[in-house]
Amino acid sequence: SSTGDGGTWFESTAESLYADGVADIVNTHWYNYDESCTNKKLQDPDVLTSPARCISIAKEYNAPVAFGEYGAYINNEDNATRAYDLVKIAANMWHDGAVGMSYWRLQSDMWNWDRDNPDASPYFLGLWKSADGDYACRPSYYTYSLMTRFIKNGMDIYNIEMSDDDVVAVAFRKGDQWT
């Protein structure tokens, strides 16, 4: 499901799948990120387009949520800003209660189809470039690889309270292993 519509689709998906016992986890995509998204806004379940909203809906059904896309106002991943935003969004999702993550777009690009704009261009959201870019890794590849290298399946997630609203921190633990 997607949060692109303010959570309405996610809510109906959760209701039909969780309530009927069809699903035990939902992987949602979240696209409503722009430069106005503070940690406080990302963690507020009353903000209809926040990741926290999806997680609060799923909690009504005692069900876990994983996230699979980190939408952003940035249309080109060749800069460090999207790489930073990827970590910020993921940390907030875990802080809000998500249990997993994936990266939806591995390859270089997808077409930005817009029926009202025949001159729409492709999005370059993949972790690496296409053949004409020598399959070079983009900055977000490195931040995503660090998260997936040290955060393993089955780890418990712990929120770390911070005195600075501009900082979000989470820790992960499995047995005696912390990261």
Short note summarizing the structure:
The chain is of the alpha/beta class and 179 residues long. It contains 5 helices and 8 strands.
Query: What overall form do the CA principal axes indicate?
Result: globular
- The percent range for strand residues is 15-25%
Average of pLDDT = 78
The poorly predicted ranges are none
Helicity level: 25-40%
Helix and strand string, N-terminal first? HEHHEHEEEHEEE
Classify the secondary structure makeup into a structural class: alpha/beta
Total number of strands: 8
Explain this structure to me?
With 179 residues, the protein is of the alpha/beta class. It has helices spanning 8-19, 39-42, 51-59, 80-96, 139-150; strands spanning 26-30, 65-70, 100-101, 110-111, 122-123, 156-160, 169-174, 177-178. It has a 3-stranded parallel beta sheet with strand order 1-2-3. The chain has a 3-stranded antiparallel beta sheet with strand order 6-7-8. A two-stranded antiparallel ribbon has the order 4-5. Helix 4 (80-96) packs parallel to helix 5.
Set down the secondary structure blueprint.
Elements: H1 8-19, E1 26-30, H2 39-42, H3 51-59, E2 65-70, H4 80-96, E3 100-101, E4 110-111, E5 122-123, H5 139-150, E6 156-160, E7 169-174, E8 177-178
Parallel strand pairs: 1-2, 2-3
Antiparallel strand pairs: 4-5, 6-7, 7-8
Helix pairs in contact: 4-5
